[in-house]
């Protein structure tokens, strides 16, 4: 589904990704771990097409289509969902309005008919309930006044409504207490654990992987993947730390 | 008619371009234009409560009007305001007895020439009036609006400037008695330029005034709002909330002043002026002024000018919303709170629809 080949990228002229390659098949969940400054969030933003994250080499395809040629909104319509480490607050725009705009923009881009107001509200209600969010919260402005955990749950509601092929979730587990972690983990499983879906989980901790079991775990260091393995690799990291694997925090 | 216009060399007029007015004054109305069709163009305000409908075509009352409680004749109000003082023709007067209620909708159609119409609203104690005015067409529409609110009277005023070209000038003066309340909202969402001047005087204790709105400018448009709230009695509350949006080479200007007289203690005055630049070739001018002579008052003011938030734009894009739509959504959110204060739903919906039409164009 996703093919990243020898990807190089820089931010403000500083190289962050240095020849990253990764292949994710439909039906798979991949976890990317790594020390601070390794380039995990940069990878997420580069795939999402965030301005200021410049690709200097390599290729990325999603179902064979050149992802890097697409504008950010076109990547979303092509089936990419980026879960933000720090979801953005948008005063004056309700979650419902935001998501209806987004869902119908994606549908229009794919040549599908728009969802009616009633159909959309039914979908939103079902997805919100799945993440223990009330419709009252969905009517509030996007992420405004939400706690860290509520923002992450709201992101998963967005993912459920937009129903992407591939989700890249950047530290979706950060800021979550144990209950919220279970709710979010179950949400990822329910929405994305399907034969034609795939997930890349960017995380620091094993604990999310207890809820969403990865098929492969990769360790990112200095802008490239230095080790890949099964779920046991995450356990080894949790026990022994990066230093035991000969990796250091790039910022320290 | 000889016309003396203020000069851009005067401080209060330096952001306003009146240079096109003499040509419009010399023009004759276009009798061939279908005024009713023009009047029907903006979203209709389908308020069942409306009991008075006035249609002015080039300043002359159209026969389709239903004047209700309004009197059409010479108006017993004058101003020395530089533009408002030209409005000396016959106009309309709404004079409500204590406790009476009226809902007035006025549509002004211009067919290419100039017109000057005064209006006078007198509300006896506890009278309640809603006055909604819509401006469409081409030309110079110059209006003077004077309101006097008795004890406990309430006036809801909503004005939308939707000219296709030309200039709209509006001079509002309001005098608020004890416990009276004025909520006025102006929306500039047409393609013409405008100047809105307001002087609201809190003359009785515990009166409440909200005066504000949203001015949306693009192309070569110039919109300007210059509002003064004068607190001349204690325990008054005022809230001026304006939003200015400028695109292309347009200029949107906001000047808002709060004056608190020496004896107007316990005044609570809030001022919020925000500008949004959609292009770097556009201009937003913001001039907040506070002039406070009383010592026990609460006056808060905020003035900002900025661009759309890049993080929000990327967040919307990452969910599939294209850049033009994302900008429209965020711009709409920026102006929304200025229109939210319109109390009557049908009026608010019509104003929001006008703003949306501007944003989506």
TrEMBL record, chain A:
InterPro entries xrefs: AAA+_ATPase (IPR003593), ABC_transporter-like_ATP-bd (IPR003439), FeS-cluster_ATPase_SufC (IPR010230), P-loop_NTPase (IPR027417)
Keywords annotated in UniProt: ATP-binding, Nucleotide-binding
MF (Gene Ontology): ATP binding
A UniProt-annotated Pfam family: ABC_tran
Keyword Nucleotide-binding attached: yes
Matching SUPFAM superfamilies: P-loop containing nucleoside triphosphate hydrolases (SSF52540)
UniProt-listed NCBIfam families: sufC (TIGR01978)
PANTHER family, alphabetized: ABC TRANSPORTER I FAMILY MEMBER 6, CHLOROPLASTIC
Protein name listed in UniProt: Fe-S cluster assembly ATP-binding protein
TrEMBL record, chain B:
Segments forming domain SUF system FeS cluster assembly SufBD core: 113-334
Domain of life: Bacteria
Protein name in UniProt: Fe-S cluster assembly protein SufD
Origin organism lineage: Bacteria, Pseudomonadati, Pseudomonadota, Alphaproteobacteria, Sphingomonadales
């Amino acid at each position: 589904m996703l093919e990243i080949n020898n990807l190089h990228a820089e931010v403000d002229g500083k190289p962050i990704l240095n020849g990253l390659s990764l292949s994710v098949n439909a039906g798979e969940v991949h976890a990317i771990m790594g020390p601070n400054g390794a380039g995990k969030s940069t990878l997420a933003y580069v795939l999402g097409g965030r301005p200021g994250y410049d690709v200097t080499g390599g290729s990325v395809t999603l179902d064979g289509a050149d992802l890097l040629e697409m504008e950010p909104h076109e990547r979303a319509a092509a089936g990419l969902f980026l879960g933000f480490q720090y979801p953005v607050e948008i005063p004056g725009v309700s979650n419902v309005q935001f998501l209806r705009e987004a869902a119908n923009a994606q549908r229009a881009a794919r040549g599908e008919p728009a969802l009616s107001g009633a159909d959309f509200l039914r979908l939103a209600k079902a997805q919100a309930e799945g993440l223990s969010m009330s419709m009252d919260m969905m009517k509030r402005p996007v992420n405004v006044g939400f706690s860290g955990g509520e923002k992450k749950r709201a992101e998963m509601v967005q993912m459920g409504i937009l129903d992407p092929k591939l989700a890249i979730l950047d530290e979706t587990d950060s800021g979550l207490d144990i209950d919220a972690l279970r709710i979010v983990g179950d949400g990822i499983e329910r929405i994305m654990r399907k034969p034609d879906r795939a997930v890349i989980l960017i995380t620091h901790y094993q604990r999310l992987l207890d809820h969403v079991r990865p098929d492969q775990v990769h360790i990112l260091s200095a802008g490239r993947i230095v080790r890949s393995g099964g779920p046991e690799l995450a356990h080894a990291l949790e026990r022994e730390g990066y230093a035991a694997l000969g990796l250091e925090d790039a910022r320290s | 008619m000889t016309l003396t216009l203020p000069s851009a060399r005067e401080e209060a007029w330096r952001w306003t371009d009146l240079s096109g007015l003499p040509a419009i004054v010399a023009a004759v109305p276009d009798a061939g234009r279908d005024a009713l069709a023009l009047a029907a163009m903006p979203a209709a305000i389908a308020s069942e409560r409306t009991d008075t409908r006035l249609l002015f075509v080039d300043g002359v009352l159209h026969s389709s009007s239903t004047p209700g409680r309004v009197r059409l004749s010479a108006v017993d109000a004058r101003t020395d305001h530089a533009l408002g003082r030209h409005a000396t023709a016959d106009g309309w007067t709404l004079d409500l007895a204590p406790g009476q209620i009226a809902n007035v909708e006025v549509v002004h159609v211009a067919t290419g020439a100039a017109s000057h119409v005064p209006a006078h609203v007198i509300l006896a104690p506890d009278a309640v009036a809603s006055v909604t005015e819509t401006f469409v067409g081409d030309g110079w529409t110059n209006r003077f609006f004077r309101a006097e609110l008795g004890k406990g009277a309430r006036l809801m005023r909503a004005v939308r400037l939707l000219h296709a070209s030309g200039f709209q000038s509006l001079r509002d003066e309001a005098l608020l008695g004890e416990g009276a309340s004025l909520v006025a909202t102006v929306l500039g969402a047409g393609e013409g330029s405008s100047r809105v001047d307001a002087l609201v005087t809190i003359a009785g204790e515990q009166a409440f005034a909200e005066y504000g709105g949203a001015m949306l400018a693009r192309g070569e448009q110039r919109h300007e709002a210059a509002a003064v709230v004068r607190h001349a009695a204690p325990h008054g509350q005022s809230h001026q909330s304006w939003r200015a949006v400028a695109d292309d080479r347009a200029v949107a200007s906001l000047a808002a002043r709060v004056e608190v007289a020496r004896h107007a203690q316990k005044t609570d005055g809030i001022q919020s002026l925000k500008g949004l630049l959609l292009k770097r070739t556009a201009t937003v001018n913001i001039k907040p002024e506070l002039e406070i002579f009383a010592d026990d008052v609460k006056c808060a003011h905020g003035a900002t000018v900025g661009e759309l938030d890049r993080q929000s734009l990327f967040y919307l894009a990452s969910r599939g919303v294209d850049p033009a739509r994302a900008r429209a959504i965020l711009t709409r959110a920026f102006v929304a709170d200025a229109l939210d204060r319109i109390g009557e739903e049908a009026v608010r919906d019509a104003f929001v629809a006008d703003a949306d039409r501007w944003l989506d164009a």
